[in-house]
Amino acid sequence: AASGFSPPSAAKEHVSETKVRFDARLIYAAVNDEPFPISAVDLKKLSPTFYRQLVDYETSELPGTVIVDTHNRVLYLTQEGGKALRYGIGVGREGFSWSGRGEILLKKAWPTWTPPSEMIKRQPELEPYRNGMPPGPDNPLGARALYIYRDGIDTLYRLHGNGDVTSIGRAVSSGCIRLLQQDIIDLYERVPEHTPIVVA
User: Fold this and answer.
1) Do 68 and 52 touch, CB atoms closer than 8 A?
2) 71 noted as active-site residue
3) Annotated domain spans of the chain
């Protein structure tokens, strides 16, 4: 964990009768009004635990804060009245994760992906993308990216879209937080720039 970082105090999800699960077939349907088509999510490959849903969530963080619970592979967007929207995520594998407090200083739709030099060193086949991979269905950042900064400095970690449903609930990436394409589009619309984020 980052030095001087303390995770959100007393953050706890409560299972209660007020949990609201959206109709998964609707929210994870194919999206056809984007620059590139987004396929429907194969719900047979996604545990209902990771469906987008409204839950009771107790935390001292202010409403509108993004809280990433890497251990449980979920992301919360805190709401008024002790509620939060919860999304399933994929996280960075051992040695590639980041934790701490920061803010989302930049948001991009269908972003260009530029692999860091260290990644190109590990995976020389990425050399053609040193100056960026254009947006599209094969771009690892997917339909949207939210860029995490700390003290005004880019951490190089992102919340981003992902078309691989089997990565949700797992530790598979090089540190970034993956959401289903439909979920990152939803989150992108809800969080403005300068949104605080806690990754624990």
Assistant:
1) no
2) no
3) 12-199
- Structure confidence at residue 1 as a pLDDT band (50, 70, 90): very low
**Catalytic status, residue 176:** yes
**C-alpha distance from residue 128 to each of 44, 114, 176 (Å):** 36, 10, 21
CB 160 within 8 A of CB 177: yes
Tens of pLDDT along 73-108? Answer: 999 999 999 999 999 999 987 656 788 999 999 999
Active-site residue, selected from the candidate residues 14, 71, 160, 194: 160
Model-wide pTM > 0.90:
no
pLDDT in tens, 136-152: 988 999 999 999 999 99
Please give the angle made by the CA atoms of 135, 158 and 139, to the nearest 5 degrees.
20
CATH architecture of 12-199: Beta Barrel (2.40)
DSSP-assigned states of every residue in the chain: --TT--PPTT-EEE--TT-EE--HHHHTS-B-SSSS-BPPP-GGGS-GGGS-EEEEEE-SSPTT-EEEETTTTEEEEE-GGGEEEEEE-BEE-TTS---EEEEEEEEEES--B---HHHHHH-GGGGGGTT-BPSSTT-TTTTEEEEEEETTEEEEEEEEEES-GGGTTSEEESSPEEEEHHHHHHHHHH--TTEEEEE-
Q: Which two tokens stand for residue 75?
A: 């992301």
